[in-house]
Amino acid sequence: MIPAAAAPPLGASAAGENLLGNSVSYRFSHLLGIEALTAEQITFLLDQSKPFQEIQKHPLKKLATLRGKSVALAFFEPSTRTRISFATAASRLGADSMNLQAESSSLKKGESLLDTVHTLDAMKPDCIVMRHASSGAPDFVAKHLQIPVINAGDGTHEHPTQALLDALTIRDHLGHIDKLNVTILGDIQHSRVARSNIQLLGKFGCRFTLCGPAMWLPREIERVGPAGCEIRRTSRMDEALTDADVIIVLRVQSERMNEPSLPTDEYVLQYQLNEERLALAQPGALVLHPGPMIRGLEIDSAVADGPQSCVLEQVTNGVAVRMALLYLLTGGEPSVGAKKDSPSAGD
Amino acid sequence: MLWIKNGRVIDPATNIDAKLDVLIDGENIVACGVPDDIAQLAGKNRGAANTTFDATGLIVAPGFIDLHCHLREPGGEASETIVTGTKAAARGGFTAICPMPNTRPVNDNASVTRSIIERATFAAGVRVWPIGACSAGSKGESLAEIAAMKQAGIVAVSDDGKPVANAKLMRQIMDYCGSLGLPVIDHCEDVSLAAGAVMREGETSVRLGHRGMPAAAESICVGRDTQVAALTGGRLHIAHLSAKASLELVRDAKKRGLAVTCEVTPHHFTLIDEDVAYDTNFKMNPPLASREDRDALLAGLADGTVDAIATDHAPHEPSSKAVEFDKAPFGITGFETALALGLQQLVHTGRIKLMRLVELFTTGPARVLGMERRIAPGQPADLTLFSTDHAWTFRSNESASKSRNTPFDGREFKGAPMATIVAGKVICRR
Description:
The complex is a heterodimer. In chain A, 33% of the residues lie in helices and 13% in strands. By secondary structure, chain A is α/β, with parallel strands linked by helices. In chain A, strand 1 (70-75), helix 2 (81-92) and strand 2 form a beta-alpha-beta unit. Chain A has a 5-stranded parallel sheet. Chain A has a 4-stranded parallel sheet with strand order 2-1-3-4, sandwiched between helices.
């Protein structure tokens, strides 16, 4: 049995009531990106994730909330952690997942994305989680399907669930996500994680310092945040790290290294986050990494394994956030949820 | 005889803007004058079975010329054919159009040129003036059979769709075409800067996560080729110019007396990169530019730097555009919305006079091709009759084109082509 507090709150009177005490409910038809969400909606999603975080700590982690539902996991781009995280989230809610993987998909045989997702849709999943190498592919699919689409990372556009789990992790540690100094290190230009984090934390007044090799720091990135969001760019680590409350280290995508080629050693010399550099940040500054992390390249092992690292917590929180989303998007009608039975716990 | 009555004749070649009638005999204009004179002339020729066309409330302009379009035939008939393309062109008020050579096979030899011209004779009646490839296969390696194509009927050369990356080859093309009296139409794009890009680089591309090409991808090439033009003395025409920096280079080249001209498309003077999201009907090459660039183009259209409006009509069958943004082909259709966009963006806003708009569709492009276009006795009876106030809504599913890829579906307009006359025949009437 799971304690009542652990039950997804949407089922009972908590339907639509978030921690702000507002009696509001949000209907999410899709999750395509963070940009379109309001701060209130984000807070709501983070609050909804709380009980699912609790479930992760429980010896019996499986709910029957979404029993009989199925989630299509359409990963058109190779992914391990995000796919497993969504699969775990679905399974812990009692839902089945339908797996489509890029390597074995009919896309390889020349089928169009639209035909592939229509085929998947014809198998009647209750929602589709998709990752795709093309920016905007989930938006495109959402326009053609009736079921909810969750963006699990699209090209260099957004990775909304990553930003949500990052925010949840930060909030757990610092108690809030307001007006923080957030430093993002690495290949900003090609990072969907950076974009989603800027969109999310920017709505809470966080100030950003983006740091990396100059050719990976497009000038225009300073203006892509939410209105009033302060974003500065620097290629100097000392400048970037001073006063940082949160440091998000991006993976150095070696496939990007060749445009134009930047020697790996050069990156390590200039931009690796090591203990000495970390000491410039606020005491106790949080270190986040979306993974997979390459030790010795963008991050030194001492930092990755150090007390300020939140890397594994991020992974655990990822399951919770994704459970909350799957629940909200496929669990029925949030607006009429109050009339429904509380989702049963345990299996 | 065809007697066009009660219209307002606007002819940039003679700077005439007056209520005049036009009398056509066979394929040619016999007279353009005040109604009484024309009535007398027509009266004399009563035996010749006069037909009258009441052009009350309409502008009577020389026939519109489109310097830049893609008819997809041969090889791309799923997207367009010469029949459907010319039908759409006629609806757009165009009396002559210049299809680019990037067909399959490429129009890089006289037999392809001849087949296009022959197919066009069975089509909608619009004159089809093919543009030949400047390099063999448009591969940018060696010269195409340009003189033979000229004999077969091409009016210009271009490797449109891609640039001539090799400056030395560009010099040879310019030299050779200079001797043949053909303009070289230049698709300006630095391929290394544009590699993989799907839209213009800027705030919007960064926000959307689209790979962008900077404006310099175009202007670097314009800079190089205006210098090649200076080196050779050949006639250089910049296709679908989109960037402010490119326009300044053209303005400068003109000031120096070089034979450099340029065209701008309706979508580039209407839309900007901020309009792009993930709808592939907003994907074209060159991509929609910044607001600053667009405003510079509007200024260039007004001050005379821009010589012609060209559609770059680029049909793509629906399934090819119903894909991820970065997988979609570049290009949008353009014949049927060109004039209406010109009126909407340029004339109704007061940026330019009607005379100038007509110039951009007629004498401007004609000059680029080294031709004349005017309403005068002895001239071919190619006329475009249009309204400046006819209210209508463009519906892509009613288009005469075989394709539907347009960002202007559902757009409301004031003003439209009402009749297209080619060689004395009314080939299209609204």
